[in-house]
Amino acid sequence: MKIEVSKNMLVGAMAALGKLVSRMSPVEEYKSVLIVLGNGIMRFHTCGPEETMEFTLNAEAEGAFRQIVHFDALQKAVRSGKGEEVSLEVESEILLV
Length: 97
Known about the structure:
The protein has helices spanning 7-18, 71-80, and strands at 2-6, 32-38, 41-47, 52-58, 65-70, 85-91, 94-96. The protein has 97 residues and is of the alpha+beta class. It has one domain (2-96): DNA Polymerase III, subunit A, domain 2 (DNA Polymerase III, Chain A, domain 2, Roll), CATH 3.10.150.
């Protein structure tokens, strides 16, 4: 499954989520982003010790997936993308950006 997402929207989501991500935490959950696709909506969710945050984007894609990725790896992949669209693809249960 392949999903095209506006790079500007994704950069905005990463900026908002990055304010809550705790890169120095020993808890992996606090350094990661849960990405969920379902019913044409893509949700990016993260949490800290005392709060959670979710960013929602419309996605023109059929099917569903649920992946947890390290925030820093996702941010680096989004920033290095060329063009106005970022392609997210799930292949063998691995998220490729």
